[in-house]
């Protein structure tokens, strides 16, 4: 009986330094995978907000056109205070250009609605989908940070 009591007191309770370091290394590896994946998913969800805002603004332009036979770039006519207006929880700003500002775009009457990320809040680091555009013909397009067409990826 005395031997059992002695063996209990000789064992220490807790973790060894090696066991603790293994847990820290495993947690670090998991976090190095999880954080970039989480950030990527957050950026994708913010893109959805921007696309929704662009399509909403395009439908407002069409509604305005149906009553006045002309498109407008006046923010008040479309229900906004001023352009560029921040949308998508202030991660994107939208701007309307009527007639379309793009060279080679549709002839007047026309419009172009573009959403671009606001600098300094993280969404501007989204290199895959840097801007979204819808024009009066319904053509949807997107550009990446190199100004290359990324419509298939982003829309």
Task: Provide the fold topology.
Elements: H1 2-10, H2 17-68, E1 85-87, E2 92-97, E3 112-117, E4 131-135, E5 140-143, H3 151-154
Short overview:
With about 160 residues, the chain is an alpha+beta fold. About 40% of the residues lie in helices and about 15% in strands.
Radius of gyration: 27 Å
Q: Helical proportion?
A: 40-55%
* Strand order within the widest beta sheet: 1-2-3-4-5
> How would a crystallographer describe the biggest sheet?
5 strands, antiparallel
Task: Give the percentage of residues in beta strands.
Answer: 15-25%
For the record, the CATH architecture stands as 2-Layer Sandwich
CATH domain class? Alpha Beta
Mean pLDDT: 86
Could you characterize what this model shows?
This protein has 155 residues and is of the alpha+beta class. It has one domain: Fructose-1,6-Bisphosphatase, Chain A, domain 1 (2-Layer Sandwich), CATH 3.30.540. It is built from three helices and five strands. The chain has a five-stranded antiparallel sheet. The longest helix has 52 residues, at 17-68. The mean pLDDT is 86.
Overview features:
about 160 residues, alpha+beta, Fructose-1,6-Bisphosphatase, Chain A, domain 1, 5-stranded antiparallel β-sheet, 5 strands, elongated
